[in-house]
Amino acid sequence: MARRTSIAVLALGLAWLWPAPRLGAQAPVDETGEEIVATFSIVGRDPTTGELGVAVQSRAFRAGTVVSYAKAGVGAIATQAAANQTYGPRGLELLALGLSADEVVEHLTGSDPGRDRRQLAVIDAEGRVRAYTGSATSDWAGHIEGENFSVQGNILAGETVVRAMAEAFESSEGPLALRLMDALDAGEAAGGDARGKQAGGVLVVKPIGDSGRTSDRWVDVRVDDHAEPFRELRRLVNMSISRIHSGEARALAAAGRFEEAVAAQRKAIEIVPGEDQLIYGLARLHARAGDAEGAVAALAEAIAIDVRWRELAASQADFDNIRGNAPFQRLLEGRKQDPGGPRS
Fold first, then answer.
1. Strand ranges, E, within 83-146
2. How far apart, in whole angstroms, are the C-alpha atoms of residue 53 and residue 304?
3. 3-state DSSP call for residue 202?
4. Alpha-carbon distance 229 to 103, whole Å?
5. Beta-carbon neighbour count of residue 136 at 10 Å?
6. How many whole angstroms separate alpha carbon 78 and alpha carbon 242?
7. Tens digits of per-residue pLDDT, 231-283?
């Protein structure tokens, strides 16, 4: 895939080497007191769904909160290094006013006396990108701008980190959140943050449309302080995508499209295998469709994980279509001996 590439390689000598802070420590600050979010991140867009997102990983506490900003139909912004956190909301306001990504970066950095210590990436709703790496950010620092994405980082193991991220994003498929996560994993595999790992986040926004949602935040997960942030972040992203599929299943069932609803729920379970709440939801869908065999099989699987689902199934109206089914009745036997209700 052809892409416009801009890489800033900045070597500032041994005086800028960073001691690794202990896990759980606050993010370091520069001489002005501003947080240093030495990190690698990606801003990206899915032209098919209109999703926009930011993903970030850093050896800095709560990096996901500091770095990531996005608004559906407007754009996404990553602000890091000596992070100027006004860049996020101000940049989104400027994009909403119709300024291009180039103009937003020029405006934000041009009026900022601390711009040489900043790193910034902006993508608009059309996928146009502009990144900026200040001349006083710490080695290795740089960025790559591509079609519908930009990857950037500072205090990295080397240029290979952002190159690996770009290649991973370009070659991956599926929902934007998973592609952003693939880019983070590739960056870490190439050396990542030179100081290690601690925190991260994935934020994806999408136009609400007629989905019935009240927020444009499609995926919004963060790991503020963790020994294995990549593993934990991947788990949370998978849970988010899984629940999106489950939400689609509920909407399809409400429209009477039970075959499609069951397929969507099975996708949800494939992403998070063994999640008893999702398996119980599959049983409900089968029962509403009048498929007693499918409902009993899924319900038995859910009960094997947590017996409290038996009590709920005994009284929930979703199972009324199969109340007279003998295998269903046998599955409910002994329910009075089970404790409480299912976990939320």
1. 118-124, 129-133, 142-146
2. 38
3. strand
4. 34
5. 17
6. 26
7. 999 999 999 999 999 999 999 999 999 999 999 999 999 999 999 999 999 99
Give the whole-angstrom CA distance, residue 249 versus residue 285: 9
- CA–CA dist 200, 78 (Å, integer): 12
Q: What is the DSSP letter of 260?
A: H
Residue 63 confidence (pLDDT): 87
**Tokens matching residue 25:** 């420590």
Return the bridge partners of 130, or none. 122
Strand, coil or helix: 115: helix
Instruction: Determine the pLDDT at residue 39.
Output: 85
List, in order of start, the domains of the chain with CATH numbers: 14-226 (3.60.20.10), 246-337 (1.25.40.10)
Give CA–CA dist 334/325, Å, rounded: 17
> Residue 34 corresponds to which tokens in the numbers above?
């501003």
Q: How high is the pLDDT of residue 36?
A: 52
Instruction: Using alpha carbons, list the distances in angstroms from residue 66 to 29, 89, 134, 296.
Output: 13, 12, 18, 47
Q: Say yes or no to pLDDT of 181 above 90.
A: yes
Mean pLDDT, range 181-185, rounded to an integer: 97
Q: How many residues does the chain have?
A: 344
Average pLDDT, the chain: 87
Q: Which two tokens stand for residue 1?
A: 């895939």
Q: Quote the pTM value.
A: 0.82
* CA 242/CA 279 separation, integer angstroms: 12
* Integer angstrom CA distances of residue 285 from 16, 140, 259, 264, 273: 59, 52, 9, 11, 18
Q: Which of 82, 128, 132 is nearest to 107 (CA)?
A: 132
- Look at the block and give the residue holding tokens 């690996």: 164
Phi and psi at 152, nearest 5°, equal: -155, 155
Q: Are 313 and 299 in contact (CB under 8 A)?
A: yes
CA distance 50 to 145: 19
pLDDT at residue 119 above 60? yes
- For residues 100 and 109, is the Cβ–Cβ distance under 8 A? no
Distance between CA atoms of residues 302 and 281, nearest Å? 9
